[in-house]
Amino acid sequence: MRRPDDRIASALRFATELIAWVATPWALSAYSWPLAVLAVVVLIGLPTVFSTPGDKSRVIVPVPGTVTILLVLLQLAAAVVSAWTAWPIPAALLVTLLAVTTLVTERHRWHWLLATDRRKRRERRERRKRRDRRTDARRPS
What we know:
Helix content: over 70%
Structural class: mainly alpha
Strand order of the largest sheet: 1-2
Number of strands: 2
């Protein structure tokens, strides 16, 4: 199964990520500057370091598709919660609408990521079965 063409979803996801990167430290800076900086490092750093092979061209630390989906959900939640905390209601409403639209457009990519996870689990199971059969064949009767 090939990765779906998701240029629109990618653009919406990136816009939401940018908002999370701006709104989260903005909302947290009232409480703690170190926490605001840490939030930016986490929101930018985690998806940069951890990614699913085939989803990005450069993978530093490969993770299952489920982890990639959870990282996107973290970005979406950070954008929405931070916008409602730090910005006026009309801006927060627009961010919420963008996040919901991103959720809808991400579904094809997420389906692909989950299918990749299932395929890899099936391949591992088959390798284990082959290994076990070889081991059983070597054992004396």
